[in-house]
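Predict both folds.
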Amino acid sequence: MKPLLIGVGNDFAGDDAAGRLVARGLRGASGFDLAECHGAAADLVTLMEGRERVLIVDACRAGAPPGTLHRLDSGAGELPPWLRSVSSHGIGLAEGVALARVLGVLPPEVEVWAIEGADFATGAAMTPAVSVCVAAVCAEIPGHLAG
């Protein structure tokens, strides 16, 4: 089975759209499957179930400069609490990964690439630094998932 890229976010909340824009930017790429979701835990569990390798791209608020890319390995333990802080997702990405772990359906390899955002307000435009990071991530992912 091919690796799966999941782009998480809200199209109507500024920088929160980053993960979904990465997924859309990779349409037509080969070697991996694509999915988009809002980040609800149940949706993430369902998408990950039965996979061997998953890469999730989402926006975050960790306190770094906008456009910073955080690369996390879910196999290293619990994800940091700042992945729970973007409220548009409900309970958040970290809880979705934890739920999959508890249910015994967490894939052997789950990476999270979190793009630091600045503006998550409804109707906001994407921050320029986040747009630059989205483009860079789109360029890097095909080679990363092929490796």
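Second protein follows, with its predicted structure tokens after the sequence.
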Amino acid sequence: MACVKALAESPGLTSIPSTYNFTQNQHDHEAVSEIDPEDSIPVIDFSLLTSSSPDQRSKVIQDLGKACRDWGFFTVINHNVPEKLMEMTMDACQRFFNLTEEEKREFAGKHVLDPIRCGTSFNASVEKVFFWRDFLKVFVHPEFHSPNKPVGFSEISLEYCKRIRQVARELLKGISESLGLEFCYIERAMNLDSGLQILVANLYPPCPQPELAMGMPPHSDHGLLTLLTQNGICGLQLLHNGKWVNVNVVPNSFLVNTGDHIEILSNGKYKSVVHRAVVNNKMTRVSLAIANGPSLDTVVEPSKELIERQSEAPAYIGIKYKDFLELQQSNQLDNKSVLDRVRV
């Protein structure tokens, strides 16, 4: 299947092929609203999380817990990742998508757990309707992989992902404490030293009929935390209090969302949030998501400490992260369908 970039660049393209056409109820464009400024996505100041002041740290941990409970999305500022490195990584991803079709085919990959895989849509082998999206997925930890093109991609992505891992681990310490657990609880329980980290670059070219197409359908993310940046073009929407809301990313910040495995570990106290990507007819949107998860062999289940303290029954059955990943990646992407399979 040819990439969407090539299709979008076809001379004289004025309509999309029917295989990219979502029905209106799947698309549900009308229900989008802007976020009320009084009820906006929480902002977490990372510098306070690493502060030597116990009061500042305690306050930001409370804010982090509230953000995970009420939104499942938050913006992280003052995160110590150099802006120049963020720009270079975004540029490297754009240069990857600008490779020829033939060059990109070298990295096509066959299996969902192949360490380097590029393609289009989500899982074109099972989908009836395709998404207006090309992607590159690379496993960057515990073993670092990288395509050998374009020049410099490997060195830049190695440094970037290392920096992101440091930010994610500090956030997870704060989330641990916000749940009333030891700060290193998630780190130990999820075997983060061997945790799976995946770089996912997404390209959404201009679409002649954006009201009919979808960049990515409604879904939640597997794993613990995803840190996202984009090239200044908006297109991300999240489901908040039953409404789709547009998300604007603050420059030089990360948009962070909690994944399915935070929901499982917290026994549903913190929820993974359904979100989607819409497309436009003018500009190419590039987003870069770094997914941070447990080790592939970790069986993720609700925290026994939380369950005992709150006298609750487990709301999810334990499942090995690798098995969860294969379930999600081998099927159609559909809201929280895989997480629903492990609910008790």
